[in-house]
Amino acid sequence: MQALLTEHLTNHVVCAKDEHYSVGAAETAVNKLWHSARAMMLHGNIHKRFWHFAIAHAAYIHNVTSPSRIDKFKTIFELLFLKRADLTQVPPYGCFATVYKKWAYPSRSNLRSSI
Predict the structure, then answer these.
(1) What is the pLDDT of residues 71-92, one digit of tens each?
(2) Residue 69 φ/ψ region, left for φ over 0, alpha for ψ in the -120 to 50 degree band, beta for the rest
(3) Phi, psi values for residue 97, rounded to 5°
């Protein structure tokens, strides 16, 4: 893991639980994700119990659109996967969605009760 972090010019700093405010870069990243997630939840009129989905969505959008430290003209996603991210398939947070599940109707023989 250390080799990967060094390769991508990342300085990994470990701090105690809830002490991220002592590291300025980490505090900025946490605040940016929190404010993005909060804005998405307010815009979509989403209940607070779904905050973890908003944080995950905000982190994904951040990783796909943020420039990398190695090459300012490429995003983090482009450096990792060697292709541009397709953002046309990413719906806005809180949009209406349904899950399509192919329904299998039970056969008549399964409906009969055994004696």
Answers:
(1) 889 888 888 889 888 888 888 8
(2) alpha
(3) -145, 150
CB 48 within 8 A of CB 40: no
Distance CA 106, CA 83 (A): 45
Give the integer Cα–Cα distance in Å for 30 and 20: 8
Tokens of 32: 């940016």
Sequence ranges of the domains in the chain: 2-110
pLDDT under 70 in the chain at which residues? 20-21, 97-115
Distance CA 6, CA 69 (A): 12
Provide φ and ψ at 64, rounded to 5°: -80, -30
Alpha carbon distance 81, 78 (integer Å): 5
